[in-house]
Design a protein that fits this description.
- The complex is a heterodimer.
- Chain A has nine helices and five strands.
- In chain A, helix 1 packs across helix 2 and helix 2 packs antiparallel against helix 3.
- The radius of gyration of chain A is 23 Å and the shape is elongated.
- In chain A, strand 3 and strand 4 form a beta hairpin.
- A five-stranded antiparallel β-sheet of chain A has the order 1-2-3-4-5.
- Chain A starts with a helix and ends in a 28-residue tail after the last helix.
- Chain A is of the alpha+beta class.
- Chain B is an alpha+beta fold.
- Chain B folds into three domains: 220 residues, Beta Barrel (Barwin-like endoglucanases); 67 residues, OB fold (Dihydrolipoamide Acetyltransferase, E2P); 78 residues, OB fold (Dihydrolipoamide Acetyltransferase, E2P).
- Chain B has six helices and 19 strands.
- In chain B, the strands form four sheets. In chain B, strands 14-18-15-17-16-19 form a six-stranded mixed β-barrel.
- In chain B, a hairpin with a 6-residue loop joins strand 7 and strand 8.
- The chains are: A alpha+beta, B alpha+beta.
Chain lengths: 321, 378
C-alpha cells in the first residue's frame, strides 16, 4: 500500500476522535457551569444573544461530524455523504482557524475553548497551527476510498507509527496537555505559581512584541509591575512625537514563549494610542463592530438596594479563565 | 513597656498615600491592554477609595477632602466613570462613618472626621458598643467611633462602635503587663493587655498565650495598647513556625472562593477607606508577604496585586460589593479558621476588610468575621 494512502487513512480515525473529544469536553464544561451561555472561545466573538446558539451549534457540529466520519469510513454511505462529511470537517477546521485568528486579535485574554475547560490559555500560534493542520488533514481525506479493515502483524506497524507520530505532533501543538497536567495535580496552576519578576522581564525582552516597540521605551527599568492571576503587567515609560507615553505589556505566566499583549497609553490623559505607523484610525464600521462584540457581563452580582451597592460586571470568568 | 516599634517596614504594597492613584492607574492600563469595553479613558477620573466620611463631606461641600483623606486624593491616576461605578462610591455606600465624638445626647450624635463634622439622629433602636453593649447616650466625647448608618435614612445612626480595636498576629513576647504581638512585616507591633474579667473567656479560645502562637482578639483601644476582651476566633494548635504545609491544589483555583472575611484596624490606611487586604499578594513585588520568610500560608489562593478587584459577598446578609485590594493581609493567611456567624464557612480567611467595608457589608465588628464568598474580577 502506498504511503500517501496510509497517511490519508490515518486521518479519519484521528479527526473523528478529536472532534468527539472536543464535543464531549465542551458538553462537560456546559454541564459543570450549568449553562450553555458560558463563553467558549470563539463564541465570545458573537453578540450576547447569539452565543448560546453558537455554542450549541459548534458542539453539535463537532459531534455530528465525528460520528459521520466514523459511519462513512467504510463501505456504508459511500459517495456524496462521505465527501460531504469530510468536506464539512475541513470547512469546520478552516472556519475555526479564521475564528481563532480573529479571537487572538480582539479577545487576546481568553482561550480557544476547543476542549472546554482545558483550553483556557490564550490562543497561541500553536493552537492556530493545530487547527490549520487538522483542516489540511481533513481536506486530504476527500476522495479517499473506503478504509480497509485493520492490518495485522508487520503491516500494522506503518499506520500505527504514522498515527503515533501525528498524535505526538498534535500533542506538541496542544496547550491543553499542560492544562491536563495541572488538573491531574502534576503541575501547579498558573494562578498559584511563583514566577520571578526577572523571568517575566527576560521573557518580555526576548519577545517579538518587545522588539517591535522597544524603540519607544525611554528607560531601562519598568515604572510599574504587578501581577493578577496568570498575567503579569509591566509598564515602561516612553516617548512618542515628544509626548510622554507608557508602554504596557501583559505577559502570561508560562515557562516558555508566553503570550504577550501590549498597549500604548498617553501618560497624561490615559488615552490608548495607536502604535506608530501600524494602526489606521477606526472607521465607523469598525466602531460598530466593536460595539456588537463588546463582551457582556458574565453575571450580575446580587445587589442590596438598601446599601445602594451596584452590580458588578466583568468577573474572571469572562476574562482570563 | 515593651517596644512596639519593631522592624515595621512599610513597602510599596502598604495602603496609604498614592494607593488610590496606583489602583486607578493599574486598572486603566490593564483595560488598555485587553481593551475591555467598559473603559473610556477620555472621561477618566480618579478611583475614589478615600474614606467614606471624607467623600461624603466632599459631596456636600464640593470641596477637597480633609486632612486624613488628603493622602489619597488629588490622584493623577485615571479611571473612567463606568469603571469607577463598579466600586461602591460615596453616594452609594455612605453606610460607615468613622471619626471622633464631639457631642452626644439621647437624640443625636456629632462626629468629627478632622475636616468636617457630621450630625446623626439617634433613634430608640440604635445600639452602641464600648467593650459591651450600652446606650448610645452613654458614649463620651473623645471616643473614636465607627458608626453604621440606617439602611434607608442616612442621617440616622443604626449602630455605633466606640474605641473598638483588634490585634491579629503572632505573640513575640509575654510579660506581666501583657503581650507583644507581631502583625506582619507591614504593620507595627501591637501591645495587648488582658484584664482579669476577660482572661477566662480569652484563654478558653487561646490556651497558649506564649511566644510563637497566634492570637486574634477584639477589645478597647486605650492609648497605644489594646485591652483584649473578646476572642475573635479559636487559636490554631500549632506554633507559627510549625505550620502544616497547605493542601495541594489540583486544577485551577475556582472563580469563587468561600471562607471567612475578617476586619482590621487602619494602620497606614486612612480610616474609613473602602478596600480589602488580600492574603496572597504577589510575593515578587516589594516586601515579603508573610510575617517572615519560610512561613507558608494556610490557604492556597491565587496571586493578586494592589488594585485588583474582588467582589466580596456577605453570605449572611446577601450584600455584596466590589472592593479594590488596598493592602496585604500578612497574618490573615496564617489562620486556617472558619467563621460561624451564619452556618459554618469553609476554612481559611479569604479577605481582611477595612472597618468601613466590613461594616458597610453588614458585618458586626465585635463578632470579628462573617461568612463570605469572594470572586476575583475587574
Amino acid at each position: 500500500m502506498q504511503l500517501s494512502v496510509v497517511v490519508r487513512e490515518v486521518q479519519v480515525p484521528l479527526l473523528a476522535s478529536l472532534l468527539l473529544g472536543g464535543s464531549a469536553a465542551k458538553l462537560v464544561h456546559m454541564l459543570r457551569v450549568r449553562s450553555v451561555d458560558a463563553a467558549l472561545g470563539p463564541t465570545a466573538l458573537f453578540p450576547v444573544y447569539l452565543r448560546r446558539p453558537a455554542a450549541m451549534l459548534i458542539c453539535g457540529c463537532e459531534f455530528a461530524l465525528g460520528v459521520g466520519l466514523i459511519l462513512t469510513a467504510g463501505r456504508i454511505c459511500r459517495g456524496v455523504p462521505t465527501t460531504a462529511v469530510r468536506l464539512g470537517t475541513a470547512l469546520l477546521f478552516l472556519v475555526a482557524t479564521c475564528a481563532l485568528i480573529e479571537l487572538r486579535g480582539t479577545r487576546p485574554d481568553i482561550g480557544c475553548g476547543c476542549f472546554g475547560d482545558f483550553s483556557t490559555a490564550p490562543v497561541s500560534g500553536r493552537a492556530l497551527a493545530r487547527s490549520a493542520l487538522l483542516a489540511v488533514a481533513a481536506l486530504s481525506t476527500v476522495g479517499l476510498p473506503p478504509l480497509q479493515p485493520p492490518h495485522r502483524g508487520v503491516a500494522a506497524i506503518l499506520p500505527l507509527g504514522i498515527l503515533a507520530a501525528e498524535l505526538a505532533l498534535v500533542a506538541v501543538l496542544s496547550p491543553e496537555i499542560g492544562e491536563a497536567l495541572v488538573r491531574l495535580g502534576y503541575s501547579e496552576p498558573c494562578e498559584l505559581r511563583t514566577v520571578p519578576a526577572e523571568r517575566t522581564v527576560a521573557a518580555l525582552h526576548r519577545s517579538s512584541q518587545w522588539r517591535r516597540h522597544a524603540g519607544l521605551v525611554s528607560a531601562a527599568e519598568p515604572v510599574d509591575m504587578w501581577r493578577e492571576l496568570c498575567w503579569r503587567y509591566v509598564v515602561y515609560p516612553g516617548e512618542l512625537h515628544g509626548r510622554p507615553v507608557e508602554l504596557v505589556f501583559a505577559v502570561f505566566l508560562r515557562q516558555h514563549r508566553p503570550a504577550i499583549q501590549a498597549a500604548l497609553v498617553d501618560a497624561a490623559t490615559g488615552n490608548v494610542l495607536p502604535w506608530p505607523g501600524s494602526v489606521r484610525p477606526a472607521t465607523e464600521a469598525d466602531r460598530m463592530r466593536r460595539l456588537i462584540r463588546a463582551p457582556a457581563p458574565a453575571f450580575s452580582a446580587p445587589t442590596d438596594p438598601g446599601l445602594g451597592i451596584p452590580a458588578v460586571p466583568g468577573v474572571r470568568g469572562a476574562g482570563v479563565r | 513597656m515593651l517596644d512596639t516599634g519593631g522592624d515595621h517596614a512599610c513597602c510599596d504594597r502598604c495602603a496609604g498615600a498614592g494607593t488610590a492613584v496606583r489602583i486607578a492607574r493599574r486598572r486603566l492600563l490593564k483595560a488598555a491592554v485587553f481593551r475591555t469595553a467598559d473603559v473610556r479613558p477620555a472621561d477618566a477620573r480618579p478611583a475614589d477609595v478615600r474614606p467614606a466620611d471624607a467623600r461624603a463631606a466632599d459631596a456636600r461641600a464640593s470641596s477637597t477632602a480633609g486632612a486624613r483623606a488628603g493622602a489619597t486624593q488629588g490622584a493623577a491616576g485615571l479611571l473612567p466613570d463606568r469603571a469607577r461605578a463598579r466600586f461602591a462610591t460615596s453616594g452609594e455606600l455612605p453606610r460607615a462613618v468613622t471619626g471622633e465624638i464631639i457631642d452626644v445626647s439621647p437624640h443625636f450624635l456629632v462626629v468629627s472626621n478632622g475636616a468636617s463634622q457630621q450630625r446623626f439622629a439617634l433613634t430608640p433602636d440604635a445600639t452602641a458598643w464600648r467593650g459591651g453593649a450600652l446606650e448610645p447616650a452613654a458614649l463620651r466625647p473623645g471616643d473614636q467611633v465607627v458608626v453604621r448608618l440606617h439602611k434607608k435614612a442616612r442621617g440616622v445612626a443604626d449602630r455605633i462602635w466606640a474605641n473598638i480595636g483588634r490585634v491579629t498576629g503572632t505573640i513575640v513576647e509575654r510579660t506581666r503587663d501583657g503581650l507583644l504581638v507581631d502583625e506582619g512585616t507591614t504593620r507595627k507591633r501591637q501591645f495587648v493587655t488582658i484584664p482579669p474579667r476577660a482572661s477566662g473567656r480569652i484563654q478558653v479560645r487561646f490556651p497558649s498565650l506564649e511566644p510563637g502562637y497566634l492570637i486574634d482578639v477584639i477589645g478597647l483601644r486605650r492609648g497605644g495598647a489594646l485591652e483584649g476582651l473578646i476572642p475573635a476566633t479559636s487559636q490554631p494548635a500549632y506554633r507559627v513556625d510549625q505550620m502544616p504545609a497547605p493542601a495541594l491544589v489540583s486544577g485551577h483555583v475556582p472563580d469563587a472562593i468561600s471562607g471567612s472575611a475578617t476586619w482590621h484596624e487602619p494602620a497606614d490606611e486612612p480610616p474609613g477607606v473602602l478596600g480589602v487586604a488580600y492574603p496572597a499578594l504577589d510575593p515578587e513585588v516589594g516586601c515579603a508577604e508573610g510575617p517572615g520568610p519560610g512561613v507558608p500560608g494556610n490557604a492556597r489562593m491565587p496571586y493578586l496585586s494592589i488594585g485588583s478587584v474582588l467582589l466580596v459577598r456577605n453570605d449572611c446578609t446577601g450584600s455584596s460589593c466590589a472592593l479594590p485590594v488596598t493592602s496585604c493581609a500578612a497574618v490573615g493567611r496564617l489562620f486556617n479558621d472558619r467563621c460561624v456567624t451564619c452556618g459554618t464557612s469553609p476554612r481559611s480567611r479569604v479577605a481582611d476588610l477595612t472597618q468601613a467595608s466590613f461594616v458597610a457589608l453588614g458585618g458586626e465588628l465585635e463578632r470579628g468575621c462573617f461568612n463570605a464568598t469572594i470572586t476575583i474580577g475587574g
